[in-house]
Amino acid sequence: HSTQDWEQRQEEDTLLIERILLLVRNVLHVPPDPMEEQGVDGDASVHDRVLWALHISGMDDLLKFLASAQMEQQWALHVLEIISLMFRDQNPEELAALGQGPAGAEHREDTQELEILRQRELAEKRARALQRPSRHSRFGGSYILQGLKSIGDRDVVFHKGLHNLKSYSHDLGKEPRRVPRRRQAA
């Protein structure tokens, strides 16, 4: 049957699609019978064989299309029910581990290598930080200039380094007074 837009579909096409989805749902809905399924450990159950048949026929791709297509939203609940029945007896942790396989093992090895490299880099960075001399302090100390009075009767406290003492004046650190342009000397 060729794909048709929903406007061009006949009523019987819509009914056929719904019946097919209900048939798939009902087949997947059949509960497992432990007495009937006494196979060897690791043997695929009837449910697993049905899922494999759905995969071989391309029905799983069709379900993905119906679930994601904007125009096919009327089938969303049927598709959701079918997907939930597909994963009925599955353990999420086992499914996640199955999906990884050899690629997952490679990924874990890569992650471990990256972690080892990161730890080595952090250790080198710490060693470099220990070798480096401590950062120079900008604080040059405070000195009292005896014989030079500040406001009041106290001696001046000088906060710059001693090498700056020659350039000391009481106006150090003050904003220079701005003289308007017309009052400046010619």
From TrEMBL:
Lineage of the species this protein comes from: Eukaryota, Metazoa, Chordata, Craniata, Vertebrata
Keywords, comma-separated and alphabetical: Cell cycle, Nucleus
GO-annotated molecular function: DNA binding
PANTHER family, A to Z: PROTEIN TIMELESS HOMOLOG, TIMEOUT/TIMELESS-2
InterPro entries referenced in this protein's UniProt entry, alphabetically: Timeless, Timeless_N
Protein name: TIM protein
Localization in the cell: Nucleus
Keyword Metal-binding carried by entry: no
Source organism per UniProt: Tachuris rubrigastra
GO cellular component, one term: replication fork protection complex
Occurrences of domain Timeless N-terminal (ranges): 4-144
UniProt cross-references to Pfam families, sorted A to Z: TIMELESS
One of the GO biological process terms: DNA replication checkpoint signaling
